[in-house]
Amino acid sequence: MWTWFHQLASPPTFYRFAESLAPWLFAAGVLLVGAGVYGGLFVAPPDYQQGDAFRIIYVHVPAAALSMSIYVAMALAAAVALIWRMKLAEVALVAAAPVGASFTALALVTGMLWGKPMWGAYWVWDVRLTLELLLLFQYLGVLGLNRAYADPRAGARASAWLALIGVVFVYINKKSVEWWNSLHQGSTLLSFEGMRNPKISGDMLWPLLVSLAGFYLFFGAVWLRRMQNEVLWRERNTRWAQERVAA
Amino acid sequence: MIGPALAVFRRELLLAARRPAEWAQPLVFYGIVALLFPLGIEALNPALKVFAPAIVWVGALLAALLAVERMFRGDLEDGTLEQLLLADAPAPLLVAAKFAAHWLLTALPLVVAAPLLGAALGLEGLPLQVLTLSLLLGTPTLMFTGGFAAALIVGTQRAGILLPILVLPLMTPAVIFGGGAVRAAAAGLPYAAPLYFLGALLVLTVTVLPFAAAGALRNAVE
User: Fold this and answer.
1) For chain A, how many structural domains are there in total?
2) Long-range CB contacts for residues A183-191, cutoff 8 Å, separation at least 24
3) Domain boundary assignment for chain B
4) Which of A79, A83, B92, B100 is the most exposed, having the fewest neighbouring CB atoms within 10 Å of its CB?
């Protein structure tokens, strides 16, 4: 187990591993997102209060969940990169940031589109909304910091310190709908209580779960691909990378 | 262990005493931001009083941003930074001493000037006291987060817009709770909770960020 793990940390091995895994993740992700969105748009009944407008949930909730999960994943990679100085963890951190920023932007935009008909405003300075906007800036900070360094390793490690400190805000973001009296509703889904006694009916729930799984798998595929590119760029002077590009 | 930290502290004060313009700049900037605001809207508009806490707090944030920008740049160029990290004393402690000296030099004047600016913007009585207290509790947070961000960018060639982007998410809670305390006091509501939050932020940033900043500095000189 551990030897396998150590081998995986070597760039060529990781590259081959990702090469074989990414297409499957991508296919499964697209399939599940398709099924989830189809189920959400055509199978699930309209909501008794929100009508058809609630259907944006099938994009909004997975995007918002990913926006926070990706930052946590980045912070974990940051800890590994700083403690064990593992190059692949640096690559993972750097590769996740732009994807995380995109999902945060998607969550913000879908949330605004949902907020207009339901709350009557695109934007409210609510705790959850504010923290999600700040999360976007946190991602941009990690991205910008990484780019500002001439040496990619120094850039990744500076970003790692930032990601480690910034993850505190993700926890506050996650808990904000419980701690403060917020306009944004609490999580209906992601709790043990919610799993045992779902607060939404089954024919609305399954497309959401399928869509969530699909978004996560899709992120996995994109993440691996971006990591491959980063590894290739960092190793561009080695023989295996040049052979890979020539092939 | 305390000796080196004191030496760093004294060095910062000495440097500032030799170049007074550098540490006076944030204070002047702060005053200009806060005093130009009434001229931007009508000078006698009663809404000014409502905005006063936000104006003073945002002014303090901008001044802190200005103050930390070059915090480590000179040290990196003349090799002091390397000596700090090589010294026979824990680097986080020395970094904390440097942050503390910078707070004393650039942030404490902001706190002292706050009642004056608050009064100029129409605050009086209890809200004015709460404003000053909130800045006293909040400026160390601004200074330490700003110092951490300065440590992150010291190794870069072109920092430019980066510092505000790095600092904005980290400093926002201080502005929210600081402004919130004054608003609560002005409305006659209990204002202790936001002040406790500011205190909690203070303890958190002062204890955690020197370690992260020292790590970032080590990364920059490597």
Assistant:
1) 1
2) A183/A119, A183/A124, A183/A126, A184/A126, A184/A127, A184/A128, A184/A129, A189/A61, A190/A65
3) 2-221
4) A83
Residue B168 near chain A (CB below 8 Å): yes
Residue A28, in any domain of the structure: no
User: How far is C-alpha A37 from the geometric centre of its chain's CA atoms?
Assistant: 18
ipTM confidence: 0.89
Longest dimension (CA), chain B: 58
Sign of CA dihedral B37, B41, B44, B48: negative
B92-125 pLDDT, tens digit per residue, is 999 999 999 999 998 999 999 999 988 888 888 8
**Cβ(A126)–Cβ(A183) under 8 Å?**
yes
User: Which range of residues forms the domain containing residue A206?
Assistant: 55-246
> Is residue A105's pLDDT more than 80?
yes
Residues B176-191: b if buried by 16+ CB within 10 A, e if exposed:
bbbbbbbbbbbeeeeb
Q: Tell me which residue in A148, A161, A164 faces B159 most closely, judged by beta carbons.
A: A148
Q: HEC string of A183-214?
A: CCCCCCCCCHHHHHCCCCCHHHHHHHHHHHHH
Cα–Cα distance, B21 to B172 (Å, whole number)? 28
Percent of chain A with pLDDT over 90: 52
Q: Do B215 and A134 touch (CB under 8 A)?
A: no
Is A164 part of any domain?
Answer: yes
A–B CB contacts, 8 A cutoff, strictly below: 62
In whole angstroms, give the CA distance from residue A107 to residue A61. 7
- Name the pTM for this structure: 0.90
A158 contacts in B (CB within 8 Å)? 152-153, 155-156, 216, 219-220
Residue B203 in contact with partner chain A when CB distance is under 8 A: no
**Interchain proximity B168–A162, CB inside 8 Å:** no
Contact at 8 Å (CB) between B8 and B87? no
The per-residue pLDDT for A188 is 66
For the stretch A1-15, pLDDT in tens is 677 777 778 888 899
B14 touches chain A (CB under 8 A): no
Residue A242 domain flag? yes
Distance CA B151, CA B154 (A): 5
Torsional sign, CA A138, B29, B21, B133: negative
